[in-house]
Amino acid sequence: MRTKGDHQSGVRNLWRLRRYLRPYRLQFTGLILAALAGTAVGIAVPLVIRRVVDGPIAHHDPGGLFALGALALLLGVAEATLTFIRRWSQSSQALGMEATIRQEIYAHLQRLPVAFHDRWQSGQLLARVTADLSVIRRFLSFGLLFLIVNLATYAVVVGLLIQLHWPLGLLVAASSVPLVVVSRRFTRTYLRTSRRMQDEQGDLATQVEETARGLRTVKSFGRQSFMSDQFGSGADRLRDTAVDKGRQLAGTSAQFDLVPNLTLAAVLVAGAMEVAAGRLTIGELVAFVTLQLMLIWPIESLGWIIGNAQEAMTASDRIYEVLDAPPSIVDRPGATKAGPVKGEVCFDNVWFSYPGSDVPVLRGISLTVRPGETLAVVGTTGCGKTTLVSLVPRLYDVTSGRITLDGRDIRDLRMCSLREVVGVAFEEPTLFSMSVRENLALGRTDATDDEIHEALALAQADFVEDLPWGLDTRVGEQGLSLSGGQRQRLALARAILSRPRVLVLDDPLSALDVHTEALVEKALAGVLSDTTALLVVHRPSTIALADRVALLAGGVIVATGTHSELLATVPAYRAVLSEAAAIADAA
Ligand SMILES: Nc1ncnc2c1ncn2[C@@H]1O[C@H](COP(=O)(O)OP(=O)(O)OP(=O)(O)O)[C@@H](O)[C@H]1O
């Protein structure tokens, strides 16, 4: 059930959007003034008609008709001009605001920690920066304007009607009571339906996005019809909600249509009786009815405007759910640049649980990686290796304890500085729909072509030279036009290119064949000789790169030493390696 709180939060969040309107306040004020002036001119026309009927027509005075006719013509031209000005400038500020909010959400999404993106479906985010923003734009460019203009028109016209003939005027004013009752009932259900529809749109966008990304898996398992059925039921749900929403609007609009028409009929009957009794002139009745007709559109459009406002409220709720999410991993006050770094990385009694979970994934890790040393992290699957190395570039922050770089807590370093020092390459590399060069430049924007070629050579990624446009070849979305091994090598080149003092490599060679892996390892050995490196290792062959190995089990470091020491003295290490070797052989 929709609660009063939902409505209040919708109103509050919609009101918070006013700051985006501020840069356009002059245009917006001009727009409202043009709209109000256009309406005022429209209202003046029936008053001229009254003069025409009660003056020149009643007194058979064609001379008087000419002046009033010219005035009516002038009013017509003025109204048309003002309507043109309003329509011409109506959308520009709303579009400007939409673009500003969209950019702010995008920038905020980038500031938000990885943990936020772990929890949120990408389709829900996509729907917020597209569909929800469009709803808000529609409200700001049309709904809000017409709400102001229609309410002003209603107040002025009812005031004039009361002035023309107060009993009939009060009758028209009284018709607002059922309108208020209808709108209250409408808003009670529409807000909830509108929110449901926006959420379902987000769910559907997520499904499309996930299917597009996982199409190979879907096809290879022959599960197209299963996925289509799932999508179909989501689409049906959305359709049902949209139909429900449309029907609520239709029912309410019909009631909004009925009220002014019934009032008009009552006014015509009562007005004719008043004219017959001599308490109202024909001209006054014609002016009264013509003015009253001017209320029909503002009242009829009320359903649409209220609906639009409700949608804008739920859309702004959804947008502020993202904008209000705190970027929890940010520079601490007083954080400084890393400066020249030797590269000693120390885990000091580090505990870590994923946000929203009480179960610690890492439990009291204490470990020092000396400058220039390469440490391999080995352990069974799910023991926390990726989590451990993700803490070094602060993709997540430790729950307790600390990680230091040359003795300084990494949280005391500026994020940008830390990420210049720490280079990363993950097992599942992310490439963007950009050229190879642009993808590599994410590692270092000012890299020269020579440096890029050197990094490519080190990562054994010379295949780039054979791509149709070399470095300028655009790789498809997520790098899907490349093989898994090619993507991994590009990601490795990107990490090397930034010449980091600390390199974090999470099983970056897993998709390479044995021959290429050996070549990359040979080249990497040179890079690693003077770089501190944390290497998550699954394949025993990669351990050759490491000076020392840490064995992780259940989130605890159970042994550290050289490969041969552990092999000789730690049975659990032998077990992990033989299991890994068996998996590698099977692959
Ligand atoms: N984003 C996340 N949110 C919540 N829990 C997570 C998240 N990522 C990993 N975990 C959990 O943390 C534990 C450690 O995961 P992690 O990926 O660090 O293991 P791993 O040793 O690298 O595994 P693998 O060898 O299979 O890559 C697992 O139990 C996993 O379910």
Describe the fold and architecture.
The structure is a single chain. The protein has about 575 residues and is an alpha/beta fold. It folds into 2 domains: about 5-325, Up-down Bundle (ABC transporter transmembrane region fold), CATH 1.20.1560; about 345-585, Rossmann fold, CATH 3.40.50. About 65% of the residues lie in helices and about 10% in strands. It is built from 20 helices and 10 strands. It has a 6-stranded mixed beta sheet. The chain is elongated, with a radius of gyration of 35 Å.
Question: In short, what is this structure?
Answer:
With 587 residues, the protein is of the alpha/beta class.
SSE map:
Blueprint: H1 4-16, H2 18-21, H3 25-57, H4 62-111, H5 114-119, H6 122-164, H7 166-174, H8 176-213, H9 215-220, H10 224-276, H11 282-300, H12 302-323, E1 345-352, E2 362-369, E3 374-379, H13 385-390, E4 400-405, E5 408-409, H14 415-421, E6 422-425, H15 436-441, H16 449-458, H17 484-497, E7 502-506, H18 514-528, E8 532-536, E9 548-553, E10 556-561, H19 563-569, H20 571-586
Parallel strand pairs: 3-8, 3-9, 6-7, 7-8
Antiparallel strand pairs: 1-2, 1-4, 4-5, 9-10
Helix pairs in contact: 1-12, 3-4, 3-6, 3-11, 4-6, 6-7, 6-8, 6-11, 6-12, 8-10, 8-12, 10-11, 10-12, 16-17
The chain binds adenosine-5'-triphosphate (ATP).
Subcellular location: Cell membrane
Keywords: ATP-binding, Cell membrane, Membrane, Nucleotide-binding, Transmembrane, Transmembrane helix, Transport
InterPro entries: AAA+_ATPase (IPR003593), ABC1_TM_dom (IPR011527), ABC1_TM_sf (IPR036640), ABC_transporter-like_ATP-bd (IPR003439), ABC_transporter-like_CS (IPR017871), P-loop_NTPase (IPR027417), Type_1_exporter (IPR039421)
